Amino acid sequence: MPQSIEEHTGKRIARARKTRRLNQRELADKAHVSYSTLTKVEQGAMPASPSVIGALARALSVPVSELTGQPYLDELRHDQLDGLIQPIREALDIYDLGLDPEVAPRGLDELHGDAERLCELVRATDLKTAATELPPLIHEATAAAYEAGSDRAWKILASTYRTAYDITTKLGYADLCTVALDRVEWAAQRGSDPVLSGMRQYMRALVYLRAAQYGIGQRLIRMGMSTMEHAEASRERDVVTGQLHLGAAVLSARSQDGDAADGHLAEAERIAARTGEAVQTHWLAFGPTNVGVHKVSSLAERDMYPEAVAAAKTLNVPEDWPPSRLAHHYAEVARAQLWMGRTEDSFGSLRKARHVAPQQTRYHPMVRETYSGLTHARRQMSESFSGFGAWLGA
After folding, report:
1. Measured between alpha carbons, how far is 120 from 130 in angstroms, rounded to an integer?
2. What's the CA angle centered on 236, arms 234 and 237, to 5 degrees?
3. Is 375 exposed, middle or buried (0-12, 13-18, 19+ CB in 10 A)?
4. Domain-terminating residue out of 49, 69, 89
């Protein structure tokens, strides 16, 4: 399937619709999406929101990724990232083979340090370095877990699996990220760590959020919160519980349940006031800043674009906040600005996203959709605008 910007989501929706022998009116009715929205999306005149893409994917009985075109293979090959996926896949597959006699693991302190460093690389969106170093670390951590058999060893292995989830998610490999999450739970159970299990449920919920299966996502959040009740009281437990509330807020907003979204945000804000900024606690970036970012996201998901942009203006993001989270925030603001007709501001937000996290931004479906919408909204594109499109793959 072509992966260029010209092959935008709207064209993929139209192709899938025609394959199902539906006209636009029939698909709009079946998906409970307005006819006007569907026509604009298919034309590429406006970016499809995640909720609209999800509704159309359900109506067409196709995965969301089929409509968004992920993974973007041409760009992955250009960046020499596609060849890094298979070693990760193979490393995830040896989890139950026991101790490998050909692997002599280093001490747990060194392995823990490397696992933390890879988490930090992902937050800095240096995906290529992280993806290159991850497979041998998984092999080594697997050997260490079987050799030592301690809770700490299993937790280190779980951390490497979590990094595999982060990388494969950001590069668009939805099938592989679910395998990585299964491995996280497998290792967390052996490490007797309910906090890791609760965090895994949060990440599973995000998988279902991206797949537009919001009911399942909410059930996973509830399971995660139930799991957290078995953890000892600690700042770590508070951080993961707060992040679960943030995930629930976005799921509720995507389902257009504003009251539930606001309730979860309020609870997360209460917890964040107690924890403060906890950027490195399980690398979730939880804290007052992340609550504010999720407020913007919640408003945008409910199509309250002016309110989302206004809320974004009030945010005071710390200088050391993770680029991965900040770039995603800029992408959401850009989409809201485009829907408001503020094309120059929207492109400015996309450029900010690229500046702080170029690798992640290049593979972000919302960025590509927003750029596609901008190409229709702007009669004359500046040289920088065209250059941005060439960088994306237009």
Report:
1. 9
2. 70
3. middle
4. 69
Cα R_g (the chain), whole angstroms: 21
**Containing domain of residue 23, as a range?**
1-69
Candidate from 280-284, 359-363, 378-382 with smallest mean pLDDT: 378-382
Give per-residue pLDDT as tens, 56-100.
999 999 988 899 888 888 888 888 888 999 999 999 999 999 989
Q: Tell me whether residue 103 is exposed, middle or buried, using C-beta atoms within 10 angstroms of its C-beta: 0 to 12, 13 to 18, 19 or more.
A: middle
How crowded is the C-beta side of 42, counted as CA atoms within 13 Å? Answer: 19
pLDDT band at 224 (very low <50, low <70, confident <90, very high): very high
Distances (CA, A) of 226 to 193, 195, 272: 14, 11, 19
Residue 107: what residue type?
Answer: G
Is residue 3 a part of any domain in this protein?
Answer: yes
Give the three-state DSSP class for 33: coil
- Length of the chain (residues): 394
In a domain, 312, yes or no: no
Q: Which residue among 69, 95, 125 closes a domain? A: 69
User: Quick one: tokens of 112?
Assistant: 């823990």
Neighbour-count burial for 41-67, b at 16+ CB within 10 Å, e otherwise: bbebebbbbbbbbbbbbbbbebebbbb
Q: How far apart are CA 9 and CA 294, in angstroms?
A: 25
CATH number of the domain to which 13 belongs: 1.10.260.40
Alpha-carbon span 372 to 57, nearest angstrom: 19
- Number of continuous H segments (helices) and E segments (strands) in the chain: 22, 0
Tell me if 362 is assigned to some domain: yes
What is the DSSP-derived secondary structure letter of residue 21?
T
Give the span between the Cα atoms of 276 and 148, in whole angstroms.
Answer: 35
Tokens (6 digits) for 29? 């009715």
Does residue 359 contact residue 121 with C-beta atoms inside 8 Å? no
In eight-state DSSP terms, residue 278 is B
Q: Is 203 within a domain?
A: no
Overall domain count for the chain: 2
CA atoms of 242 and 224, how far apart (whole Å): 11
pLDDT, tens only, 237-263: 999 999 999 999 999 999 889 999 999
Measuring CA to CA, how many Å separate 337 from each of 122, 279, 303, 329, 348? 27, 28, 11, 12, 10
- Per DSSP, the three-state class of 286 is strand
